[in-house]
Amino acid sequence: xxxxxHQVAGKGAITIGAYLLAIPASVLPVRWRxxxxxxxxLPCGEMSILSAFLQFFACIGGGILGFFAWxxxxxxxxxxxxxxxxxxxxxxxxxxxxxxYTLLGMNPILPLIYIFTSPVGFTMALFMVTxxxxxxxxxxTRDPAPDxxxxxxxxxxxxxxxxRGEQRRESSKAPGPDRLTTGNAASGFxxxxxxxxxxxxxxxxxVQVDSAYYRVLCVREMHTSGGxxxxxxxxxxxxxxxxxxxxRYQPPPDVxxx
Length: 258
Known about the structure:
By secondary structure, this protein is an alpha/beta fold. It has 7 helices and 7 strands. It has a 7-stranded mixed sheet, with no helix packed on it.
């Protein structure tokens, strides 16, 4: 019996921990969760709306605390400036300080000044809004979503990484014309296109070469000392097989046939 109790308690603790961890994890895009090696079975969908409201209220609280700290810093800077004044007239430094405090405190756009001039204020305001957007989005669509700002950063990073990868891939390709090689039963293909171009061909596609029709067996990359080439292995189109993804390969004028 005690062993069973400990086992149940352990499972309960793991479940509670998973739900607690899912609250901050649901703010992150999926790729970021994988990069942090978070478990895939976290209940992020169930905890997403709670996470959104907690984000909203936490940013409100953090923004208010930051606002008071910012006001205190403004008052301290004002006192430092007034301490340097030559107050030989009727008004003393304390009078100038009191007027400054009053004018600063009565400024109706003071919160906006705090938001747009303070990094903390801007960050808190931004994530307060995105937390509210997350909550409304899930309430309307029932579809959990990460923070829009983080999702935008993730999408931008993925786009830049993809573009860099494509550039590296293009620069690694070996120069030279396309080469058409006729195969046989031993080679495992009827026709091979050896090229440095990314043709829109995938395994199973039907492709017309000259006047004949073929089915794409496989597409693979071959890396040599001269660079990378892409091999498209084709077989004659079997009789009665449905055409899938019809493509047409037009051999370029400098093609080499072997």
